[in-house]
Amino acid sequence: MWSVSVSPSVFQGIQGMCMSVRQAACVRIQRGICVCPAGTVAGLGVEGVTPARGGPAGRGGGRGLRRFEEIPHTGSSGWLNLVKFWREDRFKLLHKHMERTFNTLGPIYRERLGTQSTVNILLPSDISELFQCMEGGNIVSNLTVVLSTTRNRTECMEGGNIVSHLTVVLSTTRNGAEWRADRLLLNREVMMAPAVRRFLPLLDEVARDFCRLLATRVEKEGGKEERGYSLTIDPSPDLFRFALEGSSCHVLYGERIGLFSTTPSQESQKFIFAVERMLATTPPLLYLPPRLLWRLGAPLWTQHATAWDHIFKESSVCAPPRLLEVVVGVQRESSGILGQLMDKGQLSLELIRANITELMAGGVDTTAVPLQFALYELGRNPAVQEQIRGQVRVAWARAGGDAHKALQGAPLLKGLVKETLRLYPVGITVQRYPVRDIIIQNYHIPAGTCVQACLYPLGRSRDVFQDPERFDPGRFRSLAFGFGARQCVGRRIAENPSPAAATDARE
């Protein structure tokens, strides 16, 4: 018997649009992995705020239609608001700012920050109204401008073809029949059930190796205790390596990159750092004139562009062997998503490159951070942990070694992922630009306005969830991946690493 204790390492903030809170927890492994509290669980370090209890009508309910300008707001000057944000370092705690503002102004408010103007909402009925008007609509943010300005600065050379940062943006923000046709083709290899069955064994293989790595480490480095061995660690580096090895490489390319070896690749470590730096520098750039920052050579801009340089470089390094095989006509069975897309030949190489790069860059934090929060919550809730553990054992025994059947027989595992994302969403907003005028909370909102569904306040609102602070994987509701045709294309990849790792810690 052996155990892994996670040392108290508390970090709360926003990395780009990513929220990461690292807490104390203890992982006990008895014929597998189990999580329990490690002494006193560290607090979040931020004072809680009592959620608003305003009714669905919100401000202005029961009155005639109100003008856009009457929506409650945080201040009319975007630049003064931005200066205040900068002085108070609110970008790192943007989710808490949103929660406090909803508590003060009600279920809808306007906010101007620098060049950006948004309407923020949190109630499901309002979000439903927003999504219903989005058929054929646009989703284009300032990020398009931010990345497009790097076109003349940074280019990735792959087999003589120039792929700029703009390619990725255009591939994910196109609209109409062309975009829909491409997305439906992509969904078949990423979102549909047969695709999940194909890549789940790849995740399972990495998850097994990850659990064996932890077991070996505890046995070698852990201290002897009455019930076995115990080792205190910070799980974050290991979880990020697991995410890059599994979700971002093995699933996408069908290839392992050896991150669990005694001497992991330095380039892979740099890629993880580049993703973190890209996410951390994104929020301020959404509210500032990107072209001005580019011309001034501002450190914020330089860090952001350099991070993207490395992300594109690493994704191009991983992809070329498979790309070259397609060019020269080499035929072999492909297990990764990249190989499946190329074998079908229904999408252009540029579009495949763009989407694979996006999935690779987006698959690290979105896997590692929820895994860490899941461990934290399981450590705080041993009864929930035992309930999930029991269901996994029964499901695995019935599945006869089939990982897909085992996951299907353990719905609490997916509930664990969804409940974790309800409380700790990786992306704190889902943005839409309505294609027609809409009415939300009795306020008129013109077409083309940036409207944000704010996920962190939503997940903790008493108007939406009963006893929202309670961790209950039995709730099967989540907005973390978005809705409809524009929902996160990497949803299925992100949903499965946590259950796969938990399933492989079953015995």
Automatic annotation (TrEMBL):
UniProt family annotation: Belongs to the cytochrome P450 family.
InterPro entries named in the record: CYP11_CYP27_families, Cyt_P450, Cyt_P450_CS, Cyt_P450_E_grp-I, Cyt_P450_sf
Enzyme Commission no: 1.14.15.4
BP GO annotations: C21-steroid hormone biosynthetic process; cellular response to peptide hormone stimulus; cholesterol metabolic process; cortisol metabolic process; glucocorticoid biosynthetic process
Keywords: Heme, Iron, Membrane, Metal-binding, Mitochondrion, Monooxygenase, Oxidoreductase, Steroidogenesis, Transit peptide
Subcellular location: Mitochondrion membrane
Annotated binding of heme, by residue: C488
PROSITE patterns: CYTOCHROME_P450 (PS00086)
Organism: Oncorhynchus tshawytscha (Chinook salmon)
Cofactor: heme
Protein name: steroid 11beta-monooxygenase
SUPFAM superfamilies listed in its UniProt record: Cytochrome P450
Superkingdom of the organism of origin: Eukaryota
Matching Pfam families: p450 (PF00067)
Gene Ontology CC annotations of this record: mitochondrial inner membrane
Major subcellular site: mitochondrion
